What does this fold into?
Amino acid sequence: SISNAQLYEKISYLSIIDGLTNLYNFTYFKDRISEEISRAQRHNQPLSILMLDIDHFKSMNTIYGHQVGNRILVEIADIIKKDARKIDIAVRYGGDEIALVLTNTDKEKSLIVGKRICNLISSYRFPIGSAALPVTVSIGIVTSPDDGLSEKELIDKVEKVIQKAKSQGGNQARMYKEE
It folds into this structure.
């Protein structure tokens, strides 16, 4: 009985964790984000979502190989986990995108977090054999309720912000602003 309970607990844990980065997975994000948005609205608190995309990741995979790309993802995930608060939800959203849900965090504070993560990653040198590879990220930031009240609206907007950051050279954190 104890062994079965432990096995069930392990399987439940593994079903919500990304096997590569040890961050929560997309399925967990989809389950939790609506709950967190509702909770924030109920308590009249802001909720911010940071979406991080690795700049030039496809070309890094092409040049250095997918094993190096995977190591970069793992190390970026570790940087984010070390920087995040215990109440933050760090998620491998997909591919080279990582989402960070910041509860009770307004636009200004979330921008500070986003800039800090950009700086931590850009100042880190990712070991590639005997060399060190510089890596940068583009981060989009949205905050509920200001930028939207639904998961879809917030995700659509944060993805637009990331694309704008990338088109302007990357290596930056940008907040959503109504154009």
Observations:
- DSSP finds six helices and seven strands in the chain.
